[in-house]
Amino acid sequence: MAPPSSTSPTEAVLRKPKKGPPFRFLVPLIYAPILPLIRISLRRNPVLRDRLFYGVLAGAFAHGTYLVTDLYDIESKR
């Protein structure tokens, strides 16, 4: 007896691939240029500069962790 699958063959045929870009992978193109701009533009206010820089950096690491754990989750379900 075959194990039950989450999608039937007819659902797999009807599902269309997305045509747009995967925006979750394009987010680094937004925050990568922001990091040096924060360091340069807030040179006169070091407290705000450091807090903002480390906040954006923490967000970048959180986003990367989300992407990696999501990929591992998908791979483990196969």
Give a topology summary.
Blueprint: H1 9-14, H2 23-26, H3 28-41, H4 46-77
Helix pairs in contact: 3-4
Helix residue percentage: over 70%
The total count of strands amounts to 0
Average pLDDT figure: 81
Strand portion: under 5%
Low-confidence stretches: none
Shape: elongated
**Oligomeric grouping of the chains:** single chain
The largest β sheet comes out as:
none
Intertermini distance? 19 Å
Q: What is the count of DSSP helices, taking H or I runs of 4+ residues?
A: 4
Number of structurally distinct domains: 1
Report the order of strands and helices: HHHH
Tell me the Rg in angstroms.
20 Å
Summarize the model shown.
Keywords: Membrane, Transmembrane, Transmembrane helix. The chain crosses the membrane at residues 23-40. The chain has 78 residues and is mainly α.
Describe the overall structure.
With 78 residues, the chain is an all-alpha fold. The protein has helices at 9-14, 23-26, 28-41, 46-77. It has one domain. The chain contains four helices and no strands. The mean pLDDT is 81.
Which descriptors apply to this entry?
78 residues, mainly alpha, 4 helices, 72% helix, 0% strand, elongated, membrane
